[in-house]
């Protein structure tokens, strides 16, 4: 029996929330979490960091941001630096989400620079990779995700074991179409091999999350896969009972016997 890695269930609220809704959601999560075996985080819109920091204080819920600037400070209107996020107790920052790559033209190099800046401030970057439907149908999935991850490894090789990776097939995001556990596992296995090539045995501890229409009904099957170390959850993270059920599935997967 091999050791189970501590799974991570992270919610990505995207551009959703109000002061009132956040309060209800985080209170319900705090009330429903009873010392989970897995790690739990919520990645919230920047204006709500302070609110959620105080709502989640002394709970098992870690705070995350949805992006971070590649720059330390200065004339970058609209951006938030890693130093600023650190002041609000941010532990994780999503970088390279497909919505940022698609709508904000973020290149692999920009994503890599963001990951480096987060790491420099003790914030764990959750590096997102994933192919579009067109790329999958053209048989380019492996090549695309490997290229996206290679850029981050190239610039952050010395501390690559500190990152979290999230495989998020673009065609599965917000569509209700989930990758099958086998499809996801195949890509996770590939990413694990790439990380192992770069970091040797240290790679074994790197968590690779799955994201894309993960929900209370399909989480257990996905999280049972050997290389799926947690989830990055969009829509279902906005509903406390659903998010709690996914966390319960992660806890369960960690206690299941493994061959
Ligand atoms: P959904 O869970 O809403 O498909 O979103 C996934 C995602 O993009 C998380 O970052």
Protein model, in words:
The longest helix is centred in the C-terminal third of the chain and has 19 residues, at 181-199. The protein is built from 10 helices and 8 strands. Strands 1-2-3-4-5-6-7-8 form an 8-stranded parallel barrel, surrounded by 5 helices. The protein has a single domain, classed as Aldolase class I (TIM Barrel), CATH 3.20.20. The mean pLDDT is 95. It starts with 7 loop residues before the first strand and ends with a helix. Helix content is 41%, strand content 15%. Helix 3 links the parallel strand 3 and strand 4. It is an alpha/beta fold and 259 residues long. It has helices at residues 19-32, 49-55, 82-87, 98-103, 108-120, 133-137, 141-156, 181-199, 219-223, 240-255; strands spanning 8-12, 39-43, 61-65, 90-95, 124-129, 164-167, 207-211, 230-233. It binds 1,3-dihydroxyacetonephosphate (13P). 1,3-dihydroxyacetonephosphate binds next to strand 8.
Question: What are the SSEs and their pairings?
Answer:
Elements: E1 8-12, H1 19-32, E2 39-43, H2 49-55, E3 61-65, H3 82-87, E4 90-95, H4 98-103, H5 108-120, E5 124-129, H6 133-137, H7 141-156, E6 164-167, H8 181-199, E7 207-211, H9 219-223, E8 230-233, H10 240-255
Helix pairs in contact: 1-10, 5-7, 7-8
Bound molecules: 1,3-dihydroxyacetonephosphate.
Residues 12, 97, 168, 173-174, 211-214, 232-236 line the site of 1,3-dihydroxyacetonephosphate (13P).
